[in-house]
Write a structure and sequence with these properties.
homotrimer; mainly beta; about 150 residues
C-alpha cells in the first residue's frame, strides 16, 4: 500500500508463530537466522536477540559514497542489543540486522551486523503472515528497501 | 489496574495488526511514527526500528533538575537500535522513543530520541487492543508516565 | 525440538497477552520483571523496556575464564535499549536481560543487566504460550542455556 505523509510503504500482517531459538556455538548469527527463515519458509518476520559473540563484523553505510564500510570487532563481546527483520530479496528470505556490542568495560561498537560468531545467542523471532514484503533497489539511497506496491 | 510490589501500573492487551513500515527519506522519525499512530487511530502499541539517519537530536533527562538536555548528532549515523511505545497523552497518540546511534567507527551516542532525520528506516509496529493507556503528570519524576487506574 | 544446521534448539509458541507495565520508582528492574513473571505464572516471554535508571550494574561474561565481570554505573542514565526474555531456570521463571545505558553526553555503557534502579521504566512484555522452555547447564559456555529437547 502506497501511503502519503512520511511513509514510503506500509504492509499489514497478522502474527503467526513466535519462535524462541538458541543458536549454535561458533555459528554466524546472520547466516543462522537467514537459514532458519529459508528452511521454515518465513517470508516476513521481526526479531530480537541477546547473548555474546566471539567476534563480529559491523557495517556503516557511507551515505554520500553509497558503500558499506566495515568495522571489525575481533574480541569477545556481549550482544547488548540486536534487532532485525526478515523480508524477501530476489525472491529469497533475507535478514536485515543491527546490533550493539559491548566489551569488558561496557564500551560499545554498533551498526549493521554483517557477521557475528556466536558464543551464546537467544533469539525471539515472530513469524508474520500477510502480503509479500519485497526489497527493491532504491535510487536515492542505492540500498534495497521495502517497496509495498 | 493498580498492582503491588514493584509495579506502578499494568495494562493487559491483545495483539492486533503488525505493521512493517518504511519511512520516507528526509522525514523525521519521531513525527512520522506519531502521524502514523494518529492517522490509523493506534492508541497503544510497541515498535522497533533499524536503518540510518542523516542527523538526530537525543535527549538526556536530568533527574535532579527535572529537565531534558539535548545532544545533537549532526552527522550521518546508523540507527543501531530504536525501541518505542505508543500511548495517549492529552487524549492523542504519543510516541516515546529511545535510540542508539553509531558513527563510521561504530562509536555510539544514545538516549531519548527527540528527532531523527531519516536516510532509510524500517519500522515494525505492533498495534495493541485493550484499555486506554494514558500518560499523566508524575510528581516524583515530573514526567508524563502511565497511570493505569 | 532438536534442529540441525546452526540451531541448538527451537521452541514454537503462540502469542498470549501483551502487557504494558510501568515499574516503580527505586525498584530494581531485574527483580521487578522476575517478580512480575512469577506472580503471573509467565513461564515464557519476551520484552523490551525504555526509561531511565538511577544506577545500574552490568555484567560482561569472560568467555575464557567463564565468569562474569561487573561494571558499575553509579550515575543517572537513560535506558536507551533493554531487551530480555523469560524462561524457566530450576523450575522458576527467570529473566535474562541486556541493556544499553547512556549518560548526559549520550555516551554508552552496555552489557548483561545485573541490576538497574528505576527512575522511570516502561516495559512491553509479551507472554508466550507453548512448551516448557528450560535453562540447563551448558558444558561449552558454562552458562545456563535453553535446551529444548
Amino acid at each position: 500500500m502506497k501511503v502519503g505523509h512520511d511513509l514510503m510503504s506500509l504492509s499489514e500482517f497478522n502474527a503467526n508463530k513466535e519462535l524462541m531459538v538458541r543458536l549454535k556455538h561458533d555459528a554466524d548469527l546472520v547466516r543462522s537466522i537467514t537459514e532458519l527463515a529459508r528452511s521454515r519458509g518465513i517470508e516476513a518476520g521481526s526479531f530480537t536477540a541477546i547473548g555474546a559473540l566471539k567476534s563480529a563484523r559491523l557495517g556503516y553505510y557511507d551515505q554520500k559514497n553509497h558503500e558499506y564500510r566495515e568495522i571489525r570487532v575481533d574480541s569477545a563481546c556481549e550482544l547488548a542489543s540486536c534487532t532485525g527483520n526478515i523480508s524477501l530479496k530476489d525472491g529469497e528470505p533475507f535478514a536485515h540486522i543491527h546490533a550493539v556490542l559491548a566489551d569488558e568495560a561496557g564500551n560499545t561498537k554498533a551498526g549493521h551486523l554483517l557477521e557475528g560468531i556466536v558464543f551464546a545467542a537467544e533469539v525471539h523471532l515472530r513469524q508474520l503472515e500477510g502480503p509479500k514484503l519485497e526489497r527493491k533497489y532504491d535510487e536515492v539511497t542505492r540500498l534495497s528497501l521495502w517497496d509495498a506496491e
